Amino acid sequence: MIKIGDKVKVLNENYNGIVKEIYQNKFIILNDFGFEEKFDLNEIISFINVEEYNKIETTTSKNSIVENKKIVLKNPEIIEVDLHIGNLVDSFNNLTNFEMLQIQIKKINETLDGAIKNNVKKVIFIHGKGKGILKNELYKILEERKILHFFDASYNKYKMGATEIRL
User: Fold this and answer.
1) pLDDT value at position 143?
2) DSSP alpha helix (H) spans, the chain
3) Listed residue (11, 6, 19, 21) closest to 53, CA to CA
4) Buried-most residue among 78, 116, 126, 129 (CB within 10 A)?
5) pLDDT-above-90 percentage for the chain
């Protein structure tokens, strides 16, 4: 049984993490990049013991190096963040539109800070089509941060509901 504080491997992804919260069968994982992500039980696997965890962590590939027992990717993969409010909070029934937008803006800023800190090359924010309010706020943040390379992400994959940022 996986519990808070357990070290886990995210299946179908190339990183590990630590369980920070468990809520309604969802696991909030602090991943190797310093971001919190939500997963179902069938998307993660617990390390059986610390030796196994250390063996996996200290194994390097041509795309990674080990710093203080933490994998740091030399060529980080794309970070994709779904900003739909249901992916950011467990319940939003009692939140105003303004409060929801503030949560989404906070997630944008946290993601950009983490991506810059970890030398991530590309971030995709999924904001949806909607009325364009969140997309406009995202563009304001990018302009304030003087991030020049951003545009609509792949139409085939996201339609018009995502923005790609190249850092």
Assistant:
1) 95
2) 50-57, 85-88, 97-117, 133-144, 155-158
3) 6
4) 126
5) 28
Task: Report yes or no: 21 and 30 within 8 Å, Cβ to Cβ.
Answer: no
Q: 65: how many CB neighbours lie within 10 A of its CB?
A: 12
Does residue 47 carry a pLDDT above 70? no
Helix (H) or strand (E) holding 80: strand 79-82
User: Are 51 and 69 within 8 A, CB to CB?
Assistant: no
- Mean predicted lDDT score pLDDT of the chain: 78
> Is 83 strand, coil or helix?
coil
Alpha-carbon Rg for the chain in angstroms: 17
Total-model pTM: 0.57
Q: What is the pLDDT of residues 76-90, one digit of tens each?
A: 567 889 899 888 888
Q: CA neighbours within 13 Å on the CB side: how many for 46?
A: 11
Name all contacts of 30-37 with Cβ < 8 Å and 24+ positions apart: 32/70, 32/71, 32/72, 33/76, 33/79, 33/114, 33/115, 33/118, 33/120, 34/114, 34/117, 34/118, 35/79, 35/110, 35/111, 35/114, 37/10
Would you state the pLDDT for residue 99? 92
